[in-house]
Write a structure and sequence with these properties.
Layout lengths: L8 E4 L9 H14 L6 H8 L4 H12 L7 H12 L10 H10 L4 E5 L3 H11 L2 H4 L3 E3 L11 H10 L6 E5 L2 H9 L4 E4 L7 H6 L3 E3 L5 H4 L4
Parallel strand pairs: 1-2, 1-4, 2-3, 4-5, 5-6
Helix pairs in contact: 1-2, 1-4
């Protein structure tokens, strides 16, 4: 069944939507936050920080612990994450065919991620997806506020030359869905990862799917 909305631009998140990195990256970050005394268990950390920029996550940690994050901690987290991906990453099941299909049908698309650009490039290259998004990548470092603020998606839409209300976002995290809704953009929530709270994504306004190969049909491209 197709959506009743035909977007002029599709905006993809990266981690957990294009590349299967969320379980590994989330584990590394949750371990780091708990080491700083973050007052929550492992699963809660995974859900709290998923989809957020480093700056947003650090703000939460400092607010909850009442202490500043040590100098160099964020860089150490990036290094630990990079080490965890030493053997490469794989694409989300079905996403390569979906993106290829969208490209063949002439629907513009881009990427808007909370991640650091060097990691985005490396992970997309490792997963064989870089060429699809080369020259059409945007990240939280380009805007004042990361997700769940709408800034990144609005920036991507502006740079790509599309009105916000004509864009469709593909997200897997609660902050990402909230950012899309705040930007006035319809959003599909991908919940193929067992750790993803599909109910929470739906409650925030996402149309939830668990199979990325269904995306072209949803867009009316089959």
């Amino acid at each position: 069944m197709a959506l009743s909305f035909s977007p002029s631009l599709v905006i993809f998140d990266c981690d957990g939507v294009l590349v299967d990195t969320e379980p590994v990256a989330g584990r590394v970050f949750a371990e780091g936050a708990i080491e700083l005394g973050y007052p929550a268990g492992f699963d809660e950390c995974l859900h709290t920080f998923r989809g957020r920029s480093m700056a947003s996550a650090v703000e939460i940690i400092e607010r909850r612990t009442g202490s500043p994050v040590p100098e160099g901690w964020a860089d150490a987290m990036w290094r630990r994450t990079e080490e965890a991906f030493a053997n490469g990453v794989v694409p989300i099941a079905g996403v390569a065919d979906a993106v290829s299909h969208i490209q063949r049908r002439g629907v513009p698309f881009c990427l808007a991620s909370s991640g650091e650009m060097p990691f985005i490039h490396r992970n997309l290259k490792s997963a064989g997806l870089f060429d699809y998004f080369d020259g059409r990548m945007f990240n939280a470092a380009m805007v004042a506020r990361g997700k769940p603020a709408p800034d990144l998606f609005l920036h991507a839409a502006k740079e790509m030359g599309h009105a916000p209300e004509a864009c469709l976002v593909i997200e897997d995290s609660l902050p990402g869905v909230q950012a899309a809704v705040a930007a006035g953009m319809p959003v599909i929530g991908y919940a193929g990862d067992p750790l993803t709270d599909a109910g929470a994504l739906k409650s925030e306004g996402a149309h939830v799917i668990s199979d990325m190969s269904a995306l072209p049909q949803l867009l009316g491209l089959k």
